[in-house]
């Protein structure tokens, strides 16, 4: 017999949370191990937006700084790639964990949420990989005026992966807003009344995630503001209009 969510004790809720964490970590570990088998191909794919500039300019070079660098790069590529590929499964576990809080919601709707969430995460990564990284790198390299530049392989790869993961997570704002609205922690009027602060926060977050140039900060800040407006629309549609 399945116990009603409202009848569950505090420790039973904690146990569910523990199972969510264990499942999520297990999936990340499994995917990290799989990705480690293809780390060289994944590394070449990740570095491609930057490598295209390096191959065209003889003054640009990407090197390892010490003998341990290739090993640490192998580890970081495996773990970050494992995180990226396991995201849909983590979202599935999270939605399953949150389902009792919105018990009237049908499984089909949760499936739709999972698909939208995965799409938004992939869109964030695609936006970063195809637009944000190349434009930012091109802008910054342009200040070298033809002088020789040497880049650390590990730093470049880790920054690309970290920015991709961060932006993909940021693109989950509409999903987070929906669930916060369902449990009465967020409303459209609250967001509208604090729009100016949200816009400022959007560009501050953009500055923290992106390289230190205004082009990439603007490129990321604008989509964050757009996602904020989408959150307001979602809350209005779902009936969360007042504080």
Structure description:
This protein is mainly α and about 240 residues long. It folds into two domains: about 10-170, no CATH class; about 170-243. The chain is about 75% helix and about 5% strand. It has helices at about 10-35, 40-55, 70-100, 105-140, 155-170, 175-180, 190-195, 195-210, 215-235, and strands spanning about 60-65, 150. A two-stranded parallel sheet has the order 1-2. The longest helix is centred in the middle third of the chain and has 35 residues, at about 105-140.
Which residues form runs of ≥5 with pLDDT under 50?
A: none
- Count of extended strands: 2
Regarding quaternary structure, how should these chains be classified? single chain
General form: flat
> What is the count of distinct domains?
2
The average pLDDT value, as a whole number, equals 83
Distance between the termini: 38 Å
Please give the count of helices: 9
Main β-sheet: number of strands, strand sense, barrel status?
A: 2 strands, parallel
One letter per element, helices H and strands E, the order comes to: HHEHHEHHHHH
- Fraction of residues in β-strands: under 5%
Strand order of the largest sheet: 1-2
Class derived from helix and strand content: mainly alpha
Which bin fits the share of residues in helices? Answer: over 70%
User: What value does the Rg take, in angstroms?
Assistant: 21 Å
């Amino acid at each position: 017999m399945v116990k009603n969510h409202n009848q569950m004790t505090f420790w039973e809720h904690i146990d569910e949370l523990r199972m969510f964490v264990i499942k999520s970590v297990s999936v990340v570990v499994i995917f990290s191990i799989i990705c480690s088998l293809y780390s060289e191909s994944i590394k070449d794919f990740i570095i491609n937006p930057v490598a295209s500039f390096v191959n065209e300019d003889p003054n640009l070079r990407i090197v390892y700084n010490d003998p341990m660098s290739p090993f640490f790069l192998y580890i970081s590529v495996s773990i970050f790639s494992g995180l990226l590929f396991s995201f849909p499964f983590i979202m599935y576990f999270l939605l399953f964990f949150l389902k009792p809080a919105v018990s009237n919601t049908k499984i089909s709707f949760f499936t739709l949420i999972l698909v939208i969430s995965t799409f938004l995460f992939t869109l964030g990564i695609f936006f970063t990989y195809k637009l944000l990284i190349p434009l930012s790198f091109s802008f910054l390299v342009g200040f070298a005026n033809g002088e020789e530049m040497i880049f650390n392989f590990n730093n470049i790869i880790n920054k690309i992966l970290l920015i991709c993961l961060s932006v993909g997570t940021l693109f989950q704002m509409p999903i987070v807003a929906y669930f916060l609205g369902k449990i009465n922690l967020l409303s459209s009027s609250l967001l509208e009344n604090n729009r100016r602060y949200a816009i400022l926060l959007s560009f501050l977050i953009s500055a923290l995630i992106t390289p230190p140039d205004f082009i990439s900060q603007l490129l990321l800040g604008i989509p964050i503001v757009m996602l904020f407006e989408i959150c307001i629309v979602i809350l209005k549609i779902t009936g969360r209009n007042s504080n």
